[in-house]
Structure formats: structure tokens, C-alpha cells
Write a structure and sequence with these properties.
The protein is mainly α. The chain is 76% helix and 11% strand. A two-stranded antiparallel sheet has the order 1-2. It holds the Pfam family ZapA.
């Protein structure tokens, strides 16, 4: 059996866990500490128990409504992708216009050169 010492809101808590689960428990403890710190910043040091309860409730609330959280993330990512797609399309169109203009300019230079060569050719 493994043992982990978690630091939550400046206090150490020793917990037991299955062997091999120590790293996961440490990571979860760090997330809880971060949430408690957010609560403490928002509401002040109103007591460890209250902060832990508030942090637990907010975490459970997020877990209860994962669909809307995921939907919000998907919408945000879709908006980003749409913006990137529009920018890429505009860049491609600009590049195409520049390429056509370059080809037209080259064709005009070739025509002028051909005219000069035909004028210079005594045949």
C-alpha cells in the first residue's frame, strides 16, 4: 500500500492509496489545492472545512454538467477553426491573384521582347 502526503491550503494531509496510484493521487490533490486556493482568493480564509466543501461542490458541479462544458469547448474550437479557415482561404485567394498578376506581367514582357526581336530580325 502506498502513502502520499498532500498539501491542501497550507496543511499536510497523509493519505493511503493502492500501490502505483501515488502519482495520480498527488495530481488530484494538487488540483484540489488549486481549487481551494481559488475559493480562498475569492472568499478569504473562511476555514479549511468550508473551503474544502466549496471546492468539492464546485468540482462536483462541473462533473455533473460535463456535456455543456464539452459543448462550450467544441464551440470555441469550431469558432477558432472557422476563423483559421477563413484566414487561410483569404491568403490562398490573395496568392492566386498575385500569381495571375505575375503571369500576366511575364506574358506582357515576353510579348514586348518578341516584338523587339521581330523588329530587329531583317528577314
Amino acid at each position: 500500500m502506498g502513502k502520499v502526503s498532500l498539501n491542501i491550503n497550507g496543511r499536510a494531509y497523509g493519505l493511503g492509496c493502492e500501490t502505483g496510484e501515488e502519482e495520480r493521487l498527488m495530481r488530484l490533490g494538487q488540483k484540489l489545492d488549486e481549487r481551494v486556493a481559488q475559493m480562498a482568493n475569492q472568499f478569504g480564509q473562511i476555514g479549511d472545512l468550508r473551503l474544502l466543501v466549496m471546492a468539492g461542490i464546485t468540482l462536483l458541479d462541473e462533473m455533473e454538467d460535463p456535456v455543456s462544458s464539452v459543448e462550450a469547448q467544441v464551440k470555441k474550437r469550431l469558432n477558432t477553426l472557422e476563423t483559421e479557415t477563413e484566414a487561410a482561404t483569404e491568403a490562398r485567394e490573395r496568392t492566386e491573384v498575385e500569381a495571375v498578376e505575375s503571369l500576366m506581367s511575364a506574358a506582357q514582357r515576353i510579348e514586348r521582347l518578341a516584338e523587339r526581336l521581330s523588329e530587329a530580325d531583317p528577314r
